[in-house]
Amino acid sequence: MQSLHRLLLVGAAGVILAAPVASQKPDDQIVPKSQEMLRQGETLLAAGKFETADDTLETALAVDPRNRAAYVVLARVAQKEKLFGKAIRFTNKALALEPADRDALAVQGEAMVELGAVPRARDNLAKLQKLCPNGCQQLAMLSAAISRGPSVAAAKPVQIPKPN
After folding, report:
1. Closest to 126 measured CA to CA, from 112, 147, 106
2. What is the rounded distance in angstroms from the CA atom of residue 55 to the CA atom of residue 77?
3. Dihedral over Cα of 36, 45, 131, 118: its sign
């Protein structure tokens, strides 16, 4: 009788632990509503409506947090708003989902350049060179950003008057 209870307990635990795994979707199946909101966010970004684009993309991620393209577009919105640290955080989330995401590597590298972290941006450039040895748009964008150099880090800090 005791072994029957143990067997039932072990079986129930197995079912409970296996249920979330069985219900997960493959990474390549993003919820269509999330994809639709991603397209809306890209359109709003192109129109210069950054706050609305940000809200729409956040909603796309609430619908499906595996939508790494939404993280990359959110990073682009953050770059337009000159929030480069935020852009790096968003690209880190995209790269956690797919370490070989060329768009995320390029956007992250551009944000690093803007903050003056050029050596780290060059690391991203090296990764992109391995991912697309014949060249790609992302490689060209990051190379140009590194050549151009930082704009935020090069800006002079505001002078605060010294107290007497």
Report:
1. 106
2. 11
3. negative
- CB 18 within 8 Å of CB 51: no
3-state secondary structure of 147: helix
Report residue 19 as tokens. Answer: 């249920």
pLDDT tens sequence across 99-129: 999 999 999 999 999 998 999 999 999 999 9
Give the span between the Cα atoms of 21 and 42, in whole angstroms: 32
Q: How many CA atoms lie within 13 A of 89 on its CB side?
A: 6
Q: How far is CA 155 from CA 115, 120, 145, in A?
A: 10, 20, 16
| pLDDT digits 0-9 by tens, 85-103 | 999 999 999 999 999 999 9
Tokens for 112? 């690093």
Q: Please, are residues 41 and 53 in contact by the beta-carbon 8 Å criterion?
A: yes
Contact predicate 116/83, CB 8 Å: no
Which tokens hold the place of 115?
């903050």
Query: What residue ranges of the chain have pLDDT lower than 70?
Result: 1-28, 152-162, 164
What is the value of pTM for the model shown? 0.75
